[in-house]
Amino acid sequence: MGRNRRNRKVMPAEPFPAHIDSLEHDGRGVARIDGKIVFIEGALPDEDVMFHYTAQHKSYDEGRVSEVIKASPSRIKPGCSHFEICGGCSLQHMEPAAQINAKQQILIDGFKHIGKVMPETILPPLTASRWGYRRKARLGCKYVIKKEAQFVGFREKRSAFLADLNRCEVLHPAVGERIADLKLLTRSLEAYDRIAQIEVAIGDSVVALIFRNLDELVSGDIDKLCQFGVAHNIHIYLQPKGPDSVYLIWPESSQLSYRLDDFDLEILFKPNDFTQVNTEINHLMVKCAVEMLDIQPEERVLDLFCGLGNFTLPLARKAGYVVGVEGDEQLVQRGRENAAHNHITNIEFHGADLTKEPHSQPWFGSGFDKILIDPPRSGAYEIAKYLDGFGAKKIVYVSCNPATLARDAGVLVEKGYKLVSAGVMDMFPHTTHVESIALFERSV
User: Is 86 a catalytic residue?
Assistant: First the structure.
């Protein structure tokens, strides 16, 4: 379908027909027009659409659906009125089961093409509530002069501009249903144009908002923020500079926490600490990881990139001894505090840069029976090269990036492990984010 426009300097204004062959990892449909790839926003695999070009490049073009001629069986009506413009979600127009299948295929393709390995078993996906699930977020805040309006929310699709939102269906309702209220609140401040973002952090019983104020606020503005907190039972923080500058203005004290009832744990955290965004999936994920490791009472377990102890503390409920290692010293301290809070003594936490050679670290020379690893998006390539030195029988790798998991899986297999099983977890429904988990066992 289509016509050859590659040599035109001006983008075609008229709509073009296209058949969608597949789904790109960012949620756009993939078509070929005269042999050239076109990524089309709003299109799903096996659809026939009309689209408008939005950008042209040397090796690929970009477009946006203007009309669906033949719809995919997986196409559904988005659950949010802002879906077309807001960049917070990419797949609301896709049936949930198809979303999961697409994410699973991304994981499998990564193993096949990047790591050159394949799991013996594909695990059933872990799923939970698909709406109102998000408990951590950073919302942009800006007064748009040309529109004479205050915006609060996520950015527009493939744009630096904030989307004009009034609510968010994937945010926890305590905040998602109050976007319009937040717009009115920030516009009412004297410093309405000096609030850069609002960070959301929600525990089991406390909702907290951190307002990033670029200038010191006058007392009247602080009073308005506190009054908003009182009216909606939301704890209010300010952040005048970097992350270390966050402080509470209402109420007098605040403590966020979440429980992991399967392990009789309460995890305490600060509003700007890293925690998983989806509480339901986190519960399932932690339980799954511990079960996959099959921890025995006498075993020593190593938890790398351990954060504030989300996996470390549950592991300590099962193991003889657990060592957690984390690069962020504040999270290391939080892990120690959580161990004390839960009266756990068979545990220790260390701060270390896990991108560096680890032999000088005090925990490196100790043997471990099992290892859990939960790295950032950049993966664990540097430390993966040394994991065979611990002698662990099993490694569970929790990943937020299937590409780096696949790369690191190739390293572990080279080091004598086999990839036993892997699967996806729907941590971010309606987005293209792929959370996954994999089990490796020593094969030699």
Answer: no
CA angle (51, 52, 55) in 5-degree steps: 125
pTM as predicted: 0.94
pLDDT of residue 365: 75
Q: Which fold has domain 16-70?
A: OB fold (Dihydrolipoamide Acetyltransferase, E2P) (2.40.50)
Could you give the dihedral angle defined by the CA atoms of residues 126, 131, 135 and 140, in that order, rounded to the nearest 10 degrees? Answer: 130
Block residue for tokens 């007392």 = 219
How far is 260 from 284, CA to CA, in rounded Å? 10
Please list the ranges in the chain whose pLDDT falls under 70. 1-9, 444
Which CATH class name applies to 101-129+276-442? alpha beta
Beta-strand pair 300-304/321-326: parallel
Does 3.40.1190.20 match the CATH number of domain 136-202+207-254?
no
Question: 80, 86, 306, 400: which is the annotated catalytic residue?
Answer: 400
Q: Do the domains 101-129+276-442 and 136-202+207-254 sit in the same CATH topology, yes or no? A: no
Strand 265-269, strand 256-260: pairing: antiparallel
Measured distance CA(107)–CA(401) in Å, rounded: 9
353: left (phi over 0), alpha (psi -120 to 50) or beta: beta
Structure token pair of residue 437: 């988990």
Nearest-angstrom CA–CA distance, 395 and 17 = 48
Q: How far is CA 35 from the centre of its chain?
A: 35
Q: Are 151 and 140 in contact (CB under 8 A)?
A: yes
What is the model's pLDDT at position 6? 47
